[in-house]
Amino acid sequence: MPGRSVSFYISLGVVFVYCAVALFAPAIAPFDPFAISGSPLAPPDAAHILGTNDLAQDIFSRLVWGTRATLILGFLGAAISVALGTFGGIVSGYYGGRVDEAIMRFLDVMMTIPSFPLLLILTIFFRPGIYMTAVLMGFLGGLQGVRIIRSQVLSLAVADFVVGTKALGAGDGYIMARHILPNVLPLVGVKFIFSAQHFMVVGIGLGFLGMGDPAVVDWGQMIQRATQNGGIILGLWWWLIPPGLAVTFLSLALAWFGYAFEDRINPRLQVMRV
Amino acid sequence: MMHGACTMIDICDLKTYYSAGFLHRTEVRAVDGVSFGIEKGETLGLVGESGCGKTTLGRSVIRLIEPTGGRVVFDGTDVTALSRKDLRRFRRRMQMIFQDAYTSLNPRMRVSESIAEPLRIHRIEDRAGIDRRVRDLIEAVGLNEEHLNRRPYELSGGQNQRVVLARVLALEPEFIVADEPTAGLDVSVQAQILTLFRDIWREYHTTCLYISHDLGVVRAMSDRVAVMLKGRIVEIGQVADVLDHPCHPYTRLLVAAPVDDKEFSCPVSAGAPAMVEVRPGHWVEATAR
Amino acid sequence: MRAAYILRRLLYSAAAFGISVTIAFALLHFMPGDYITQYLEQIYVIAPPEIVRAYNRVYGLDRPLIEQYFSYFLGVLQGDWGYSLSYSRPVLAVIGEKLVWTLVIILPATVLAIIVGIVVGAYSGWKRGSKIDLALLNGMIFLRAIPSYWLALMILLIFAYYLGLFPLGGYVGLSALDTGIDPLDVMNHAALPIFTLFLFSVTGTYYLMRNSMLMTAGEDYIVTARAKGLDELTILRKHALRNAMLPMVTSIALECAGMITGSIFVETIFSWPGLGMLTFEALKVRDIPLLQGILLIDTLLVIVANIAADLIYPLVDPRVEVGDGART
Amino acid sequence: MTTEEPLLEVRGLTVGFPTVDGLVKAANTVDLEIRPGETLALLGETGSGKTVLGMAILRLLQPNTRIEGEILYRGRNLLSLSEGEMQKIRGREIAVVLQNTGTSLNPVLRVGDQIAEAVTLHRGLRGGDAEAAAVTLLDRVRIFDPARMAREYPHRFSGGMRERALIALALACEPSFLIADEPTRGLDAVTKREILDLFSEINPGRSVLFITHDIEAAATLAVRVAVMYAGEIVEIGPVDAVLSSPVHPYTRGLLASLPERGMRPIPGSSPSLITLPPGCRFSPRCTRAVGRCKKEHPELVEVGPDHDARCMYYD
Description:
The complex is a heterotetramer. Chain C is mostly helical. Chain C contains 13 helices and no strands. Chain C has helices spanning about 1-30, 35-45, 50-60, 65-75, 90-125, 130-145, 150-160, 175-180, 185-215, 220-230, 230-270, 275-285, 290-315. Chain C is globular. Chains in contact: A-B, A-C, B-C, B-D, C-D.
């Protein structure tokens, strides 16, 4: 399937470009993202290639700096979510019995509470910075991850090779680390990519709802400013469009990468898909 | 009571119950009071239809499933009384081979890693020693060094079962429970694997509990045979005795013996079911009237 | 048996609701800084202590925590969900009013998304690997990756701002001041939010249905049906579709939680006066009792969806004995 | 008896599955005839192509499969029929009992309805009549209390009962030709015997292609036996001749592998169906192979009355 393989590399490339922009933001951005660098609401010109906002800040510079916040929200959130989900899922699925029962009942209850409204309330009260926001999202997302990993571990835990290794005299820790974990890693990888995509979108959504970290530039807050302060009424596309387009493009690249990666590691799906 | 002097495994009134259901908890008696012994170097065949409790019995004997009651004495050691830690160390001496070789091997491990794993778990050899042992073992089961770098999905069913055998033999176990190790294999591959098993068990003087639903295989592989029905052993004895002169009605059904054979009729018990010796070494559970 | 099963699910959901009440309470009362002070800070630069005390007394914040908890819990059960700071009205009354408007857009969007998602997903999965399937699949993946607020914003810009086909926001035109609320006018305002929510939700249903159909199409009983001499359409209709729909029942219930999230963004952007925009406004002024109430009503919506799925599932899958858990 | 016109004749059937690694040649120029009223056992091991052959007859293979050759049923080539014409033959003229009994019945439909569906389709019976026919069929395959079981869902059936229900389904329209794909696989000894008894009882005068890897089952049911190896028929003949005095080295090896017949294994393993060995396909494992066996591909030649084998020694 060459098509899938091409999309795999292209999407991976796009993600790398975003990472590079985030890393070298100070070098790429022509202005301080918070500084007043011209007249407010100026249309694009040579100095401000995307014009300025109502506070006369350079939109392009803010866009570049905003990449950092987006990637931190996505990847830190995904890392925490996946770590929690993997750990919880393996413990719950492998030990089974009462441990599993307790974890699953707890999750059942947590799953009944819609996570985004819960996240909003948590955000209001913790008033988290961007890192804490990522941690919060990761924690809530990790609860769902536990279920997904667990369902895979349940079948692995009774697989002959696990029972056989137990019969060899191996301890539980050894079996979980050497036999269970490597077999759920591909799933964990896929989950990581899709979680990163999801948390970027949600994190920027928080900014859009006014729950962002005021100390950092993020695309969500940029969209919020543009929509709330006249961007739509005045039809200032260079103010409205770039941050949303940036997150949409990144989200697409990650989604594409995720599906291509899933195809790669899952030969059964590959056969079935095409 | 049913075995000679040099008993390797002595199973006494072994019980394994499961409970299922949420509102209406029901108890399934998978193994319901089983007693027998296996002598050193002997292979005991265990036959019965699927769901009769053969697999549970096999796993309970080596405590891969915790039995509900009863005792298993292994060469003088009460396995059922071992602590978890002691049990893990003791596992070197007793091993298990499963029906599906492919799922018995971690799909992400190379053959060499799979065979070396038991040696590493028990810290038996150093690095070089493990390498040497792995090479010896792969040859012993009829494969060669080029197979060592493969993964299970690159091997056939028969080759995988050989790898499983090498992995199990690495610990030089004295007792092996083989649970239908050739059930999924073709006849010609089955013959290869079974002859290999037989030769190696003879060579190592391994004691074996061989579980199968195939009477032909059991006849070829075992010295004695036990017939299991609904969690109980209903007939046990020398292979030829039991399969050629079955007494219990179920055994007779299994081997398709003529129904009205008066000579080998099943003993009848007035009270609770009990084992009766119909011929030397051939025990049958008396049917209740 | 059936009654016992339903009873158990109900008890279970009640427990979940109770815990979510507890969480709402705990979050709002154990956190640093009490919300009255925070709220009053927005009105006064420095709140006069008498006013703070008066508010604290009305909201019961001067009583011991455990007492507050029980009175809050009892209040919730009796329909007293507290008093909104910004609306100066009972929370439940505010929510009840807004919930209706949210349902006006969520229900049609969900129903439409389920029907279209299932039909298109089933077709795509049945014709797996075909050009149409791949085009649909890639289109849906594309659509799903677009953040809901961005999708809403783009739809608003294109259809309302540039093309001028629909109003820019709100739920009624200015003429409503004279003539009262005209259903046609409301529908005109609701069209874009419904369309956006539909797009947001249909991708999930499609993807699940397609995957489910892929699994089903490979099953042996499909070969059996073909070996009987049935034609493809009958096999799809009688044998494949129903089996493929089984996993959808529970998945659709889960999608409801997603709809709540989606509606927050969509309503905010379209200024649709439902629960979502209420959430946005409550966030803006930090109206904690109202947010508490919103969390509870959202939880209730999810619970209702789950119970519905639990009740429907045994009806469509004969293997689920009533009395076993419907989901694993 | 060879003078009688065959009911079904397979001529030069070649089936290939395109895969990432190359074309899997699952069946290679297979010639086979099934005579009216006979049970022919198609004996072979995993990957020998026996199931593929059975599925090819009913054209139930995946759409991307490459099929060449002819399958003549009552003189009509099934491979050149339209899909609509083929649908009229499936279930009515030629029926099949699939392997994987556990998953071959639709879990959300009542067993009786699944049988009635075929009855309605081909016999035109509707509603209550079709249901009654389904109950009669279940009764015929010895399902206890058929009227009640017809209203049950498949998960209530044991393995043996599902096998019976599938047989009932296949018999629904009294097909003149029945393909049974491994009907005894995974069954207990006692259940297996019952199913074999049922087969011989319900099929008097019907042509049956009995696909199996079980030599004992083949000996019980078949009149003739065809042995497949690596996608081709290596030996075919009357059941007694093939199973008691086999000619082809593979057949001999297979029989000697049986625990009851000494359990002497054939060395080596079956070849990859993507890169088949040149010459005789069995030559790499054959103890009697000579230089010629590795170069020339042997044809089926007559080695006895109605008994053919594919081996150089008889050329």
